[in-house]
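Sequence in, structure out. Go.
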Amino acid sequence: MTGSAEPEAGLFGYHEAMDLSIIVPMYNEEASLPHLHAAIVRAMATSGVDYEMVFVDDGSSDSTFEVARGLAAGDSRLRVVRLRRNAGQTPAMAAGFEHARGERFVTLDADLQNDPEDIPRLLATLDEGYDIVCGWREKRNDPFLTRRLPSLVANRIIARVTGVPIRDNGCSLKAYRADLIRRVPLYGEMHRFIPAMAKPAGARVAQIPVRHHPRRYGRSKYGLSRVWKVLLDLLMIRLLASSAASPLAGFGTAAAGAALLGGLGVAWCVRIAWRDPSSGLLVPMGVSALFLTLSCFLALSGLLCELVKSRGALTPVISS
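Output:
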């Protein structure tokens, strides 16, 4: 997100690393920000943790950025990043990760529905030896039909597909080890799948119940329209996971499917040509040939990935 993130001069400097970065993506939350900033400061006052706040303005159309800039002018622990356009929660979160300096990250929404008082509990659980700690909204204060029911169904589907039984993937209140999260690719709606993407790499994931408050200002930026994006990202994660575990099997399955379609197309063309040699079959034959070519390409890609994986497994690891 380097190309989309625009640090505000004078408010966003690079200094020494610190223990914790609290990252808050925000979009049209001008009324919530003063209360959120005060709540974070209050929650961290007795923690003894050296922390910073990184507020990421996701191209807001109201005065969110100006409000955040005013808060940062009075608090050196707050830094502001501004995206040039509204890119979505995942790119905004990725920009926060990119510019944060902490060894641990905590993310939460800017709408005051997440409670900063839960941050010390997340950090305490992280210190028990976990790499990711997910909050789950045990008593969620959102409409049932439009928010809670779709979320319940989606969480069960995600758990079934990924094999990672997270109760509440949509809860933004999470804690991460920075060295882990910086290695996880983020795009689309991938922020909700971070535990699923990190688990195959050996990440230790925990989840704890957190508080959830009714929305006080503005309106939700999410609705049923994002379901399709989530499903497509879930399909991509499933394909990536299966390919990473066994590249030859993953690519081989796709190659077999392409070969089957190409073979059926060729057989159909031969049958038609046998009955009527004058039939125009140039287009269907071309499509069938493309499927057969794709099959060969996928099979060779699987072999190449398998060789790369084997080479990596044989490379000795030198530790100091």
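Check: The two ends are 33 Å apart (CA to CA). The first strand starts at residue 5 and ends at 7.
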